[in-house]
Known about the structure:
Layout: E1 7-12, H1 18-30, E2 34-39, H2 43-46, H3 49-56, H4 73-80, E3 83-89, H5 91-98, H6 105-111, E4 117-121, H7 125-129, H8 131-142, E5 146-147, E6 151-154, E7 160-164, H9 168-179, E8 189-194, E9 199-202, E10 205-207, H10 214-225, E11 229-234, E12 246-249, H11 253-263, E13 269-272, E14 279-281, E15 299-301, H12 305-313, E16 320-327, H13 331-341, E17 346-351, E18 360-361, E19 363-366, E20 371-373, E21 377-378, H14 379-394
Parallel strand pairs: 1-2, 1-3, 3-4, 4-5, 8-11, 8-13, 11-12, 13-16, 16-17
Antiparallel strand pairs: 6-7, 9-10, 14-15, 17-19, 18-21, 19-20
Helix pairs in contact: 1-3, 1-9, 4-6, 5-8, 10-14
Bound molecules: cytidine-5'-triphosphate.
Amino acid sequence: MSLRDQSIVVGITGGIAAYKAVELLRELGRRGARIRAVMSRSATRFVGPITLTGLIGESPVVDLWDPSYKGEVHIELGEWADAMIVAPATMQFIASAAHGFADDPVLATYASMRGPRFIAPAMHTRMYERAATRRNLALLREDGVGIIGPVEGPLASGEIGLGRMSEPNEIADALERALRGTEDLRGRKILISAGPTYEDLDPVRFLGNRSTGKMGYAIASRAAKRGADVVLVSGPTTLPSPPGVETIRVRSAIEMHAAIMERREAADAIIMSAAIADYRPEAIAVHKIKKSEDLTLKLKRNPDILRELGELRGESRRPVLIGFALETRDVEASARSKLEKKRVDLIVGNEAADGFAGETNRVILVDHDSADALPLLSKADVADRILDRLLSIFER
Ligand code: CTP
């Protein structure tokens, strides 16, 4: 891993995780980056600026009014750096940055950055889950800011929860991925399915499930950003088509089956994240079904698309096949059994209880040799991890 030739400005704001910023500076240094630092006033109460000076060989900027600066130091830093990472980013910083405030050294530098900006949020779970924080993070995301973490773990309060800053090496990895230009999937054709299917009963009713499609859309969006040609076959969702992705909307499992089969041969990889109904009503009533006494529905098996793809592929290694296993228990064992049964390369197992419909996901990546349990991550981060694995399968 390398950040050689990258100039990175590290912004530190005032939370207990500021002590980990020291380790981040060392990690970035180890990877070959040129580093400068800027601190908010409250950050200096958690770590001494002298500690940073010792580490990076230059004093961090702590006061924009310091008369020893020849010009406007925040502008100069914004020009000098290839990227900025704010770690930790407090609730206060996130709110200020989202609304364009620039009244401290970190904010002013952040505001004047020419290159990409990243933040690693850190705060107590309740603060992280506040509607205000969610709104502000959504604004930053819209502005193109890279958000790294947070993760779940022990907090300063002694409780365990979501809000802990990502580990310095994870932050450095994410920066590397982002700065690599990461067109690492350029030229690869990836077919992705997402969302639920709706199996119609009559003109007004259907059998469906609670899938929102967010995970599959996140994979499509990240794959497109990483240069792949992406076709997304989506069941009914309210999500907009991700930029640069060709989205095909379908409704039922049968329609999804047809759409996937039609495009199968052109694909280098197929990622089946859709929650496809295993059954459909045997017949769709032409008119609305009227109520009477108890009603018995007769259901018919839907095709298992992934299994069929595995069979069609036979002994060949293309397309790469990745499936999901959403379970309410025994995730790893079920994922492993689906891996064998459907003859695929990787199964992403996740527990239905852990944020099925939320913004985050905790998954375990199961292949023929290993099982890699990831921490609770944003769906975009999970998407990147899955795509990292896909890349290594391509390169095998
Ligand atoms: N899948 C599929 N076609 C179906 C059902 C599922 O292609 N008719 C795919 C999903 O997109 C997912 C994987 O298969 O990638 C696992 O789906 P899941 O419903 O968990 O597995 P099943 O094979 O239905 O197993 P079971 O119902 O026994 O848990």
